[in-house]
Amino acid sequence: MRVAIAGAGAVGRSIAGELLENGHEILLIDKAPTAISVERVPLAEWLLADACEITSLDEAALQRCNVVIAATGDDKVNLVVSLLAKTEYGVPRVVARVNNPKNEWLFNESWGVDVAVSTPRLMSALVEEAVSVGDLVRLLRFSHGDANLVELTLPPEAALAGTRVGDVEWPEDTSLVTIIRGTRVLTPNKEDALEAGDELLFVAAQSREEQLEDLLSVRHEEA
């Protein structure tokens, strides 16, 4: 998979290193000569250019990219890069970094953003996840379809503890994507039984989050 990353600062380089380890082809773009540190990520391609300029993105052959990551420290730049990547080059997946939480509302499909990543939101979500059992925690917002990546740790008193995944009547517009059980990461199938303490990751419509939390966190009283 070919990935272009706009912004070769610490964040961009870190992302590039992770993706290179997973076998992806990486292009780092930055307009600051001081940011071009080939020796820090030697396996990546490097381009000294302004990612907000069409001529630069033509040079980067953005139409060949499967993913574009707007990872600069400037929200205005990240929005422009996202919009150009989606509208001018048809990049299938655009991920954008949100630096100022006040700007998060802008990072949506109108600006070409598929996934907006806000560091303050992630940090607060991780804190909530660490202290909350039985509460739904929103980890990421996906612009398309008004869907979120959410997590819930199944409490001991949950009604669904011991129930097979295939026997659960999940709310519409929700999908269980991963079960984290101790140190194991499980791809759920219909025969897997849910256990107390499981961390469940869902992609869910925001309108279904309350229904999903009720289903998973409360032991229903028998009639």
What does this structure look like?
With 223 residues, the chain is of the alpha/beta class. The protein folds into 2 domains: 117 residues, NAD(P)-binding Rossmann-like Domain (Rossmann fold, 3-Layer(aba) Sandwich); 85 residues, Alpha-Beta Plaits (2-Layer Sandwich), CATH 3.30.70. It contains 5 helices and 11 strands; from the N terminus they run βαββαβαββαβββββα. Strands 3-2-1-4-5-6-7-8-11-9-10 form an 11-stranded mixed β-sheet, with helices on both faces. β9 and β10 form a beta hairpin. The longest helix is centred in the middle third of the chain and has 13 residues. The radius of gyration is 20 Å and the shape is elongated. The mean pLDDT is 87. Pfam families: TrkA_C (PF02080), TrkA_N (PF02254). Keywords: Ion transport, NAD, Potassium, Potassium transport, Transport. One of its GO terms (cellular component) is plasma membrane. One of its GO terms (molecular function) is potassium ion transmembrane transporter activity.
Low-pLDDT segments, ≥5 res: none
What is the CATH fold-level name of the largest domain?
Rossmann fold
Helical stretch count? 5
Q: How many angstroms separate the termini?
A: 53 Å
Structural class: alpha/beta
Domain RCK C-terminal: 137-218
InterPro entries: K_uptake_TrkA (IPR006036), NAD(P)-bd_dom_sf (IPR036291), RCK_C (IPR006037), RCK_C_sf (IPR036721), RCK_N (IPR003148), Trk_Ktr_HKT_K-transport (IPR050721)
Keywords: Ion transport, NAD, Potassium, Potassium transport, Transport
Domain RCK N-terminal: 1-117
